Amino acid sequence: MAPPYQKMTASDILDLYFIENRARLLDVASFLDRIDRYEGAEEAKKDFRYQAFVNAVDILRSSARERTVAIQQSFSDQTTEPLESAIGLKAFGAWDGGK
Amino acid sequence: MKAIDPHIHMVSRTTDDYLKLAISGIHTVTEPAFWAGFDRSSAESFRDYFYHLTVTEPARAARFGVRHFCWIGLNSKEAENLEIAADVLAIMPEFLEAATSVGIGEVGLNKNSRNEIKVLEQQLELAVSRNELLLIHTPHLEDKLKGTRIIMEMILSEPRLDPSRVLIDHAEEHTIKEIKDNGFWFGLTLYPNSKGSPERAIDAVEIHGTDRICINSSADWSVSDPLSVLKCANEMRRRGHPEEAITKVFYDNPRTFLSQCPKFQAG
After folding, report:
1. Bridge partners of A15?
2. Which parts of chain B sit beneath pLDDT 70?
3. Residues of chain A with pLDDT under 50
4. Distance (Å, whole) CA A64 – CA B147
5. What pLDDT score was predicted for residue B193?
6. A75 touches chain B (CB under 8 A)
7. Which residues contact B84 (CB under 8 A, 6 or more apart)?
8. What Cα–Cα distance (Å) separates residue B198 from each residue in B82, B146, B189, B230, B235?
């Protein structure tokens, strides 16, 4: 680890953040296992949010840079036309394709 | 260190939080008008809220040596009812005159609907006519990219609005570059569970630089942390960034943006 107030290296970043991100990865795995374990798993897996989530996991596994931007884009509504009304609508975290 | 939280909803926080802010180094905050967690039933409810923002909250903050400024506006979640929206816009000038009001905000879009756009247009016109600073709320989650683009197009098509007097808030990785390229200030929000973390915010500083960025807690009535701005500063510090750069992001930048309103004075 670099001494304080000096520019860090990639190895320093790995040292600093590995354990907490290992835990986050296990949270994601546990979330997907939980869906598998509960009744109605097949139905839940057809939901647009689940589909968007596993698509994001695929992006995560890619070697391309800027994975964060790519995942944010993948969850986003890419259309440009305003909605006629927002009454009763809320955000879900993934775009449902305008259904 | 000293820091400014340019976006925190103190009406939703306990008095203890003012003490925490004061002893931790946050001596100046600005509080945008926002959604109360339910839709208000009339403009009179907004009148009481604006009174709270301009009179009650600065006095509560002052007991702890915290300078409290506010933004007056109609949030986009309550913009579908055009009748109430018109009534609210009619009373806004009275509260924009307050000694601690620094501009119009947080206004913007929520689900990117036609009525939200109409009401935002009216509030942009009000900002032009009064030469007010603007604090823009961008939509949540899947609606953010589209909404941010619509908002920027609206502002950029109005030549009387100067992007350097507009802060587009709740920016995230996929919107920062476009916002900055268009000359706006941008805000990053540290909000557990649904928005950004200190780690991601400092990643953004490293990728996009220290210019025209303000980092805020948006602490309110939901799961949130009024000291998250300082925790984020500490994240920048532990990565080895120089103290001058940390001070620029967490104190100088919000002071520079907000000082475009002559009523603002940082503590």
Report:
1. none
2. none
3. none
4. 27
5. 79
6. yes
7. B40, B42, B43, B78
8. 38, 25, 9, 9, 6
- Model pTM score: 0.96
Which residues of chain B make contact with A83, given a CB cutoff of 8 A? 111-114
Following CA atoms A46, A52, A57, A63 in sequence, which dihedral angle do they give, to the nearest 10 degrees?
130
pLDDT of amino acid A98: 83
User: Model ipTM?
Assistant: 0.94
The residue behind tokens 């996009």 is: B208
Question: What does the H/E/C string look like for chain B?
Answer: CCEEECCCCHHHCCHHHHHHHHHHCEEEEEEECCCCCCCCCCHHHHHHHHHHHHHHHHHHHHCCCCEEEEEECCCHHHCCCHHHHHHHHHHHHHHHCCCCEEEEEEEECCCCEHHHHHHHHHHHHHHHHHCCEEEEECCCHHHHHHHHHHHHHHHHCCCCCCHHHEEEECCCCCCHHHHHHCCCEEEEEECCCCCECHHHHHHHHHHHCCCCEEEECCCCCCCCCCCHHHHHHHHHHHCCCCHHHHHHHHHHHHHHHHCCCCCCCCC
- Reference B74, options B132, B137, B131; nearest CA is B137
Report in angstroms the alpha-carbon separations of B117 from A25, B36, B43, B161: 39, 20, 19, 16
A82·B174 Cβ contact <8 A: no
Q: What angle do CA A7, A10, A12 make, to 5 degrees?
A: 70
Assess contact for A93 and A75: CB atoms under 8 A.
Answer: yes
pLDDT of residue A1: 54
CA distances from residue B156 to B34, B48, B124 in whole angstroms, order as listed: 24, 33, 11
At which residue do the structure tokens 């018109």 appear? B86
The residue among B81, B174, B197, B205 with the most chain A CBs within 10 A of its CB, best to mutate, is B174
- The class level of CATH for B3-258 reads alpha beta
What pLDDT, on the 0 to 100 scale, is given for residue A99?
Answer: 76
